[in-house]
């Protein structure tokens, strides 16, 4: 079998990362095998270790990629808003939407991966990737708080992130019941009392 070119290998690696980022958010790190990941990427299982040292290494890369996607969406929403209040409202509305609830594979990795990451040993690289990603999103959330006190804005962002992720997780867990939408609406009302 001929070797693939460097460009083809890079393309294949990017596909594996993209597919893994989606599938890990949908099924968890241990909910899908390397063979299934590679199959979903349209590649053979045997090629995996030519791209990644281990499934753990891929989990960290896929986690970082998921956070990069979320960060880009958040920055876009903030950039399109006329002021901080509108930006905060856009972030909350997007996060607590039925679309986000119904699409874990493309959604925020905080709600999708937190439980999996919490079960991983401290020395696993995915823990560092998750921590870095949470910090990125917290920075964005802190930047849309109404005041200019950095410490107070971070505290508000921490509380809001916890409510966002918790509400989305509970809403996903109760999806298909009226409670699911009630959770999203209640969290939105608590986070955006002015509107």
UniProtKB/TrEMBL annotation:
Organism (species): Cupriavidus pauculus
Keyword Thylakoid: no
Top-rank taxon, per record: Bacteria
Protein name: TetR/AcrR family transcriptional regulator
Domain HTH tetR-type span(s) in chain numbering: 10-70
DNA bind region: 33-52
Keywords of this entry: DNA-binding, Repressor, Transcription, Transcription regulation
Entry-linked Pfam families: TetR_N (PF00440)
GO molecular function, one term: DNA binding
């Amino acid at each position: 079998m001929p070797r693939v070119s460097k460009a083809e290998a890079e393309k294949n690696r990017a596909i594996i990362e993209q597919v893994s980022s989606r599938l890990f958010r949908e099924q968890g790190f241990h909910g899908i095998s390397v063979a299934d990941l590679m199959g979903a990427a349209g590649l053979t299982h045997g090629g995996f270790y030519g791209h990644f040292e281990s499934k753990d290494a891929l989990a960290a890369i896929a986690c970082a990629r998921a956070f990069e996607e979320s960060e880009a969406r958040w920055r876009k929403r903030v950039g399109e808003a006329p002021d901080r209040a509108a930006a905060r409202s856009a972030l909350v509305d997007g996060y607590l939407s039925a679309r986000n609830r119904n699409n874990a594979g493309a959604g925020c990795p905080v709600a999708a991966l937190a439980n999996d990451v919490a079960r991983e040993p401290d020395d696993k690289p995915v823990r560092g990737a998750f921590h870095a990603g949470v910090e990125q999103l917290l920075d964005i959330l802190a930047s849309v708080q109404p005041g200019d006190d950095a410490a107070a804005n971070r505290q508000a962002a921490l509380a809001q992130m916890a409510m966002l992720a918790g509400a989305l997780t509970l809403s996903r867990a109760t999806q298909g019941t009226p409670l699911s939408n009630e959770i999203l609406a209640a969290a939105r009302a608590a986070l955006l009392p002015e509107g």
